[in-house]
Amino acid sequence: MKRSITLALSLLLIGMTAVALRLKAQESQPQVVVISAKRFEFTPNQITLKRGEPVTLRVSAQDRDHGFYQKDLKIELDLTPDHPSEVTITPEKAGRFVAICDHFCGSGHGNMKMVINVE
Amino acid sequence: MDRPLDRRKFLKVSGMSLGVGALISFAPALAAGGSPAVRVRNWFRRQNGEEVSPFNLVQLSDAHVGFQGPPNPTGTKAFERAIEVINGLNPQPDLILFTGDLTHESETPGEHAKRMQLFKDITGRLKSKKVMYVPGEHDAALDGGELYRQFFGETHYSFDHRGVHFIALDNVSTGKPAVGAAQIEWLKRDIARYPHTAPIVVFTHRPLFDLRPDWEWFTRDGDEVLNVLSPYENVTVLYGHIHRHDVHETEHATHYASRSLIFAFPDPTTVGDKKPVAFDKEKPFKNLGLQLLAERSGPNQRPSLGVDDVELTLREYAGTDGVQQISRPGASL
What we know:
The complex is a heterodimer of chains A (119) and B (333). Chain A contains one helix and nine strands.
């Protein structure tokens, strides 16, 4: 009986430890923001990030090649319809940043941009 | 705007800038016969049979032939007026450089080719026949430059003219704002044969430095290009794309942007969003005018570069009635 209780307590302890480790791992994983690109818009066209917190931007081109570029946030992605591209950043400065498509994609290309707010 | 000219500069940039383009006189400072200058002069004479000598050039940019829209409902009128102004210059420029966005893109089959032909027809009116081109993204980004090459030839190349080495760089036809590794390798090979004192003029479409990246006024690998050019002491970069005049110094080069022939963009240091300057029907060529560059004495008799803006008008010497005048059938500008 005593042995069974010890075993049960050990299993419970292992289980709790595993859950705690998993939660910690999840906490340290950057948040993922999914962005879609097609002529001549990004969806969503505005996102808000927190200063000092890492975030992964996963961007997919829906129709043709596009770019995703924001100099101050060190974002420089080449997008192709085959597979999503991603970049992980940790914004250090609060502000409003405009990301653009920098692969010329036709009339209306100049309006293909999105706003990244950092709070 | 005045800024000091470095006496060590091999080239004195003087003369007249047309805003719509720029008439620039290159007067190599060789008269004094300093030994490095003499070496360069002799080198060019030996290599090309043509020593460095003064000449004038005009830079034109961003005609966007085929563009239709509220920022300029007059189409090619400013472009045609610029050709008229150039043909009226005395002496005639012996070289004309066009720094991209000759045409506005069209995805209607056959339409972009018609626009390129119309561009050629208009430039065919130039008295001065030595015209060299580089593409802008509106000319060459959607098809990798295929149609552009049929009309205007290669998108990057180099040549010597009166002892100055000219380099045409393509930073648009991959679709990205980039020159690309292959072209940078070509550039290294191209300039390796020149002495570091050789006068070099690079002409390209986008700025090679970060002017306003969120307005797409940059070249991703512009720093690499400028690094390749950095051993050379006399580099001038002529570019377009930003639809306004601008002068910028980097460590080893002076960069001059030409105005557009279709519409202007505002000052990027004072405006947040990139939008064309509104069309003024009373002054349809507003912001597409003349710009004069001339060397003049600054404080303490130091040479300086004076830049005078003169707006292009329908007629510099007569009254105008705005867009009505150029909309009239058969109207003369």
